[in-house]
Design goal:
Elements (H helix, E strand, L loop, with lengths): L2 E7 L4 H9 L8 E8 L2 E8 L2 H7 L9 E7 L14 E2 L5 E9 L2 H10 L10 H11 L4 H9 L4 E9 L6 E6 L4 E4 L3 E5 L11 E4 L4 E6 L2 E6 L2 E3 L4 E2 L4 H5 L6 H7 L1 H9 L3 E2 L4 E2 L6 H6 L2 E6 L1 H18 L2 E6 H4 L10 E7 L5 H11 L4 E6 L5 H5 L2 E4 L12 H20 L5 H22 L2 H11 L4 E6 L4 H15 L2 E6 L16 E5 L6 H12 L4 E7 L11 E5 L7 H19 L18
Parallel strand pairs: 18-19, 18-20, 20-21, 21-22, 23-24, 23-25, 25-26, 26-27
Antiparallel strand pairs: 1-4, 1-10, 2-3, 2-4, 5-6, 6-7, 7-8, 8-12, 9-10, 9-11, 11-15, 12-13, 13-14, 16-17
Helix pairs in contact: 3-4, 4-5, 8-14, 8-15, 10-14, 10-17, 14-15, 15-19, 16-19, 17-19
The structure holds fructose -6-phosphate.
């Protein structure tokens, strides 16, 4: 996630700017930059890579400004490069902006502005906003910002400066966070508190649609053209707590980010009223020809791939195979004509996934990479890339990136089904409406964290856990077991529930917890039979089921409820309690859940 820091300060210095930028590093970034107003002119310094590169650029530069906007960029549109680094400017170089978020209708606006003679120097969505302000500029900068904001769609936070009115910073917020720091005789505009916590603990959190102007007159905030007052809050966190937004670990912070991340992933990608899906750049003609799909990935990304296999076969009516990349890299697969290869990877750098991709790529019709890190190897190797827009994941165990991968895979499945006329428009509309509601359902599950913690407290000393699911919920059993292994060091296995009698049943005793993903869906009766098999042998059973299924609590040891949804959306919801359970067990066992032993966030070796 990009980081913004803006200063309105008589004690501004190079060191102060760099220090604040470094405090935003935890958000992840691939380039950095700043703009200042000096002698009524904007000066910009930008670089690809780490903040230390920016420091090198500034080595012999004296900063004599009192206004600055600076930025750490986590690429979403356009690869990491100096040209794409923020701040961006308009044609005249008199307006400079930094941005966090996504401008959904940027392509359309870009075309409009191009026709009016605007020349763009980057591939970013951000740059169009600087040009849009320029386009609206009559005399007054604030009016121009206000009318430019009315034309953009999406989630965004901006900090804007202009040499035309060199005594102010304007901040705009919708969706993405903006917090204003109020110092003794200075102000800060930031994406997050750590960037200025060293100087003040007084802060105002802007609300959606706020436009805030910081000038010698202080802070003025308007919302929908009306002046508003916002509460000044005293921040009690230290800087480490602030990076984690008050959460104890990055992992739990990232689990709680999932509603927001899900919204970012689906943002601008469908219209549920029309039943239309727009995945940027994806060639629908090519999708029409596809008769088979191969999905390759590792770990959590493989579990998303496996869930997609069930969805694609059911809804798009074409054969799909999901393979573990470390196996697929050495296999000699027989690939049918018109096969689409989909690779899924958070980092886009996993060595096994890259090798498997290269092994299979030459035999297929075309390739899609679903990745989180913009500009990563897989994103460059594939014919098409679909970004998950989950933002950087700091916790080693994947959580929010899984949900975002699933969001993309649902959309891709419905898109293929639509093109192949395998789903009616009415059904697509209904399912897209379902997707739109997922963030609120995830919030509902997150509210039950205390109940899940109680279950964690009850079982955290056990040595083995077994997880079960059927069909599209089977990959969620695998994911639940993987999460637990990684961050609690407890042995855990995931099984298709029907497989119990073929071996795992020998493990059942009165200690091993058996966790079932068991919503009332098509195979519910079968899962109940499996639960009976375990109960009959004195096993402990924990069930994840839908809210309406109250009767099950009489038969099992513990129940975790999730909202009632159409059956194929349960995987998306059932994974959330799995993540929470693993997290609470890991913490209770005293493990560093953000950095469990022996694991790396990006596995770039074989
Ligand atoms: C699990 C986890 C790993 C990764 C796997 C693939 O929590 O983080 O299993 O999912 O190493 O990584 P990516 O998705 O970056 O290819």
């Amino acid at each position: 996630m990009c980081g913004i820091i803006g200063f309105f300060s008589d004690s501004l210095s190079k060191e102060k700017i760099i220090d604040s930028l470094k405090r935003l590093e935890y958000r992840g970034y691939d380039s950095a930059g700043l703009a200042i107003i000096e002698d009524k002119k904007i000066k910009r310094y930008r670089c690809k890579g780490e903040i230390k590169e920016l420091e090198k650029k500034l080595k012999n530069i004296q900063i004599k400004a009192n206004i600055c906007i600076a930025h750490t960029r986590w690429a979403t549109h356009g690869k990491p490069s100096e040209e794409n680094a923020h701040p961006h400017t308009d044609c005249t170089g008199k307006i400079s902006i930094v941005h966090n978020g996504i401008i959904e209708n940027y392509l359309e606006l870009r075309e409009k502005l191009k026709k009016k003679g605007h020349v763009f120097k980057s591939d970013t969505d951000t740059e169009i906003f600087a040009h849009l302000i320029e386009d609206k500029l009559n005399k007054n900068l604030i009016n121009a910002v206000e009318s430019a904001v009315k034309e953009i769609k999406g989630n965004y936070a901006f900090a804007i400066i202009s040499s035309l009115e060199p005594d102010k910073i304007i901040a705009v917020k919708k969706g993405a966070p903006v917090v204003i720091g109020i110092g003794f005789d200075e102000y800060f505009v930031s994406s997050d508190i750590p960037a200025f916590l060293k100087y003040t603990n007084k802060a105002i959190f802007l609300q959606d649609n706020d436009i805030c102007v910081i000038s010698k007159n202080g802070i003025e905030i308007k919302n929908n053209d009306k002046e508003v007052k916002r509460l000044v809050q005293n921040i009690k966190w230290d800087s480490e707590q602030a990076e984690k937004k008050g959460f104890s670990h990055f992992m739990i912070k990232e689990i709680f980010e999932q509603p927001e991340v899900f919204e970012d992933t689906i943002l601008g990608r469908f219209n549920e009223e029309k039943g239309e899906i727009h995945i940027e750049g994806l060639d629908t003609e090519k999708l029409k020809r596809i008769k088979n799909i191969r999905l390759i990935a590792c770990g959590t990304s493989y579990h998303a791939a496996l869930a997609a296999k069930y969805l694609i076969e059911k809804y798009a009516g074409i054969s799909a195979i999901a393979e573990i990349a470390s196996e697929a890299r050495y296999s000699e697969p027989v690939i049918e004509k018109n096969t689409l290869l989909i690779t899924i990877s958070q980092s886009g750098e996993t060595a096994d996934t890259i090798a498997a991709f290269n092994n299979i790529k030459k035999k297929v019709d075309f390739t899609i990479a679903i990745v989180n890190v913009v500009g990563s190897t897989l994103s460059r190797l594939a014919d098409y890339v679909i970004y998950t827009h989950a933002g950087p994941e700091i916790g080693v165990a994947s959580t929010k990136t899984f949900t975002s991968q699933m969001a993309v895979l649902y959309l891709l499945t419905f898109q293929i089904a639509r093109i192949k006329k395998k789903m009616t428009t009415d059904l697509i509309k209904k399912y897209l409406k379902n997707l739109r509601k997922m963030p609120e359902f995830i919030i509902e599950i997150l509210k039950s964290k205390d109940e899940i913690k109680k279950i964690a407290d009850k079982y955290y000393e056990q040595k083995d856990f077994l997880y079960y699911g059927r069909n599209v919920n089977y990959p969620i059993a695998l994911e639940g077991a993987l999460k637990l292994k990684e961050i609690s060091y407890i042995h855990a296995e995931g099984y298709p529930a029907g497989e119990i009698k073929h071996g795992p049943i020998a493990l059942i005793d009165d200690k091993v917890p058996n966790i079932f993903v068991a919503p009332e869906s098509r195979l519910y009766g079968k899962i109940i039979n499996n639960i009976e098999e375990i109960k009959a042998r004195g096993g402990k059973v924990i069930v994840i089921t839908n809210n309406k299924n109250k009767k099950i609590s009489k038969y099992v040891d513990d129940v975790i409820y999730i909202p009632d949804v159409d059956e194929d959306f349960y995987p998306l919801l059932a994974v959330i309690p799995m993540q929470l359970l693993a997290y609470f067990i890991g913490v209770k066992r005293g493990i560093n859940v953000d950095k469990p032993r022996n694991l790396a966030k990006s596995v770039t070796v074989e």
